Amino acid sequence: MLKRLILTLFIIVLCAGCGKSSQPTLNSNQLERKDDKIQVAVSILPQADFVKSIGKDKVRVVVMIPPGASPATYEPTPSQLKELSQADMYVKIGNLPFEKAWLNKIISANNKMKVVNSSEGIKIIGDNPHIWLSPTLVKKQIDNIYEGLVEVDPKNKDYYAVNKEKYIKDLDELDKEIREAVKNIKNKKFMVFHPAWGYFAKDYGLEEIAIEVEGKEPSPEDIIKFIELAKKNEIKAIFVSPQFNTESAEVIAKEINGKVVFADPLAQDYIKNMKAISKTLAQSLK
What we know:
By secondary structure, the chain is an alpha/beta fold. The protein has eleven helices and eight strands. The protein has helices at 2-21, 28-32, 45-55, 78-84, 97-109, 135-152, 157-182, 198-203, 220-232, 247-255, 270-285; strands at 38-42, 59-63, 89-92, 114-117, 189-192, 207-210, 237-240, 259-262. Strands 2-1-3-4 form a four-stranded parallel β-sheet, with helices on both faces. A four-stranded parallel β-sheet has the order 6-5-7-8. Strand 5 (189-192), helix 8 (198-203) and strand 6 (207-210) form a beta-alpha-beta unit. Helix 6 runs antiparallel to helix 7 and helix 9 crosses helix 10 (247-255). It is globular. It starts with a helix and ends with a helix. The relative contact order is 0.11. The model is unreliable at 1-31 (pLDDT under 50).
């Protein structure tokens, strides 16, 4: 009797296990995706602005590098990697230190998502990834993002096309406004801590002088050299990014009776930010 009872219980447990294993397994998308928006991951905040300008209410954007963090040192959190497992598309800058260090792991977190290189077709200067700080180069990035969205979501191609053309017109207006702001500047040289503004300078006939030496803080000898260079070129403002240490820039500014000016290359509202920075730059160079 006891043996028969044990055998019966064993069969019941075995059958229950078989029944459970026959049910479909839900992945994270099925469990957590509550709408049909295209989920797009990007490296930096300006890219989020680009994607939203084209996709608008058809997309949800996940930004990997949060405000205030450096693209040179940031490491994604486990929760971000979990979000990536649900992404339909990843838009990379193409030459960012963060991407060089993490892109393979990002792709391995979700090898089904489409990876769009926003720098496709853009001539990269040296190892400089800051292509988003050139409004003319952003237009090419917008084209690349548009093509990626259409591939992932072809049914909304016309919707994306209308939004893309509107944003490109906004970029053309931004370009005109910046050219107007800097056209009467005689002193074309400006000093920055981190060399983020090379493409911007190239667009508008300016010259960027970077304090940071090959990604490292300047030595005391370097600081002396930059002080002399700033005095020689009558530079009175040192532009710094909030993601980096400002101490060396403050030392130089004090010695030249100048000031430290914050210019954030990673602000999300791209057009508003670029307008403000160009006006500040023009005022500082007059």
